[in-house]
Amino acid sequence: MRILVTNDDGINAPGLKVLEAIAAAVAGPSGEVWTVAPAFEQSGVGHAITYTHPTMIAELGPRRFAAEGSPADCVLAGVHDVLKGQRPDLVLSGVNRGNNSGENVVYSGTVGGAMEGALQGLPSIALSQFMGPATQTLDDPFEAAARHGAATVRALLDKAIWDDSDYRLFYNVNFPPVAGDDVAGLRVTRQGYRPNTYFTVEPHLAPSGRRFLWVRGAAQSVDTEPGTDVAENMAGYITVTPLRADLTAHETLAELKDRLE
């Protein structure tokens, strides 16, 4: 098996090392793991691609590359340049430091990397590690992902639905904010929504007098509806959420046609 690995935290991120180990376990001794990751952190870039200027790419070691671009750029680079036409069997993106549950899915560069893999017609999975008080006391805050990551990916490859539609399915996996031994199991969930937890901006003045804005997040432990990714993560479960790049609100089409056509 040939696996392409990327992330949004950057080529030196500890979560990428965790994912490379997961990929090596899944690929097996006769498999190949290729890493193409951003040269610098690209958190929050979503599914952005860079087409207004060229992207520099550098080989750092055997099957290991850094690109000055987004996770989606890295997938494009891996599929169409680094692998030189030898398409990967699987794209893995992560392991993100912090959850990509709930509304974070929309902003996530980790999910964006997996989305690009799906748009390229490849089985793709995003993986993220929810952080919380319990992970702060661990020697390795990625312990849950490291302990259960390979088994989760194998379960998806063996049992999940992999279609070949135009906007094909891909999967968003979030590991709970607990120690590896405390993981309660796996749940298939829908995307949740943390109410009243919008991103905001905080203005600051530089010594030069120029005004800058910092984007501020919100609490990540806010309750969501039962059965959603955030709620199950907070209960100690690994969550698997099926996603598509198709953003159409299909449930509104019939009524909207009646109103407008």
Automatic annotation (TrEMBL):
It is found in: Cytoplasm. Its cofactor is a divalent metal cation. It comes from the Bacteria. GO terms for molecular function: 3'-nucleotidase activity; 5'-nucleotidase activity; exopolyphosphatase activity; metal ion binding; nucleotide binding. Pfam families: SurE (PF01975). Residues 3-194 form the Survival protein SurE-like phosphatase/nucleotidase domain. InterPro entries: SurE (IPR030048), SurE-like_Pase/nucleotidase (IPR002828), SurE-like_sf (IPR036523). It is an enzyme of class 3 (hydrolase). Its EC number is 3.1.3.5. Binds 1 divalent metal cation per subunit. Keywords: Cytoplasm, Hydrolase, Metal-binding, Nucleotide-binding. A divalent metal cation binds at residues 8-9, 43, 96. Nucleotidase that shows phosphatase activity on nucleoside 5'-monophosphates. Belongs to the SurE nucleotidase family. This is 5'-nucleotidase SurE. It comes from Meridianimarinicoccus roseus. The gene is surE.
